[in-house]
Design goal:
There is one protein chain. By secondary structure, this protein is of the alpha/beta class. The protein contains 23 helices and 15 strands. A hairpin with a 2-residue loop joins strand 8 and strand 9. It starts with a helix and ends in an 8-residue tail after the last helix.
Amino acid sequence: MANLIQLAKDQVSQLTDQAYQAAAAAGVLPAGVTVKGSVEIPKDPQNGDYASSFAMAGAKAMKMAPRAIAQAVVDHMDLTGTIFASVEIAGPGFLNFRLGPKWYGDVLAEIEAEGPLYGQSSEGQGRKVMVEFVSANPTGPMHMGNARGGVLGDTLANVLRRDGWDTWKEFYVNDAGNQIHKFAVSIQARYLQILLGEEAVPFPEDGYHGEDIKELAQAFYAQHGESYKDTPEQERLEALAAFGLKHNIPRMQSDLRRYGIEYDQWFYESSLHESGYVAETVALLTEKGWTYEKDGALWLHTAQLLRQKYLAEGKSEKQVDKLDLKDDVLRRANGFYTYFAADIAYHRNKLDVRGFDIAVDVWGADHHGHVARLQAALDGLGLDGSHRLVVVLMQLVNLLQDGQPVRMSKRSGKAIALHDLLDEVSVDAARYFFNSRSSTSPVDFDLGLAVREDSENPVYYVQYAHARICTLVARLAGEGHPVAQAGQIRWELLASEEETSLIRTLARFPEEIHAAARDYDPSRINRYLVDLAGQFHRFYSACRIKGEAPELLSARLKLADSVRAVLANGLGLLGVTAPEKM
């Protein structure tokens, strides 16, 4: 599928090279010179639509002034049958190209032909990518950070699929290890408090203090009564953990489904331990010489692996020496494997067993110290973790109410849960706001702004543009002016700055999708949609549609309907609805 901006850039390069060859054949320019000039889109439309630096790039090799080279190239350039209307020399020797009506028509024809898949490319070449996101501990309700990670991961997977990747979405369930033990101990304390009284059973200081733990204990008591009062503690803890997970995991799945997220797989950490895969992975690291024993525990040579990784990435010995590199425990003296060992095994499973070319993880920024260590461990297994494991680190969410901070504390149980948030604001608003900034920037989520119905609310602004066009299209169809096919339009009538600027913005959509996939930054789609909606509103104010001569009405209506299609397309990538009425 065509990226018309890239096609235009390619044609500039081709036309410039052909003109140079013609000028060289005529003896005006020296022959046999290889020139690598760039083609860019000028920030100021006064400088044309595309600018080539060919003349400046070739000046040294040709031993000529750039403007003289540019003049020779322009004199020997033939734009007949191309998408360009003119070329002119500017500044020190830029070649500024201006697009003709054919290109503008091609953009709208492409949008019509590709429909909902406009912007799709084959950049990913069908390679397999797993996006693992949220992966919240199943010990309590999902909170605002999970809400941001959910839409970030889901939208990123959508963007990667549109960019030509074979995409898989996964939730890693941490149903083993210390946090599950603490979860069970917390429920046990509340359960025994029901039986013996709160004063008789102290609650563990580092336990989970939320109301949800009390609710689970009450539910367990309602089902089992006092039958676990005198049971051996280990047996009781196992029963409580199983009971809590059986309640919490379906609740997480339900909340995420309400949020518009469906996974290809929920992968359980416990399966890695039960199958022996964690032990096998650690044994493989030992076989490769990356482990050693100390104080009864088995350690990974993390510092050595990191040193090797950093030197390969171009850091100097002196820079690496300054880093405080430490080794990691894989198996404790009590025989239990650490979370890090399980994490290495899980990612080995992704890259080796299931054969994903790239594994993308969406993590909170507080996990940044874990990234290089995990990549290095995978390098040690021969899986090229430094390149095949991509971790998108996500900054915090600041919750506001009409500009004022709303305090949250997960420890005290006062965190705003995802299901509570979705009772306050729409799924559309939540998904749009949480994806509105790059993952490297904190998000200010203003509950008051998210429900406002005016242009200050960006999701309302974009959805309103879509609904406005739907109303326009329906009204004109009722008056005998249906949207025409692209082949019936006289594109040269769309000549005003508002019209051509709007079409150039429509043409950017495929590039925005590719850039969002390349940079793992789906917030580019949000910014693009706000820009497109703004361009449309300016066009609609400046360029009358109803009441114009039939051919001009038809051309402008087609342009408006093309904007509608791309707005719906982009909102779909975000998992946000495109309403026809508001």
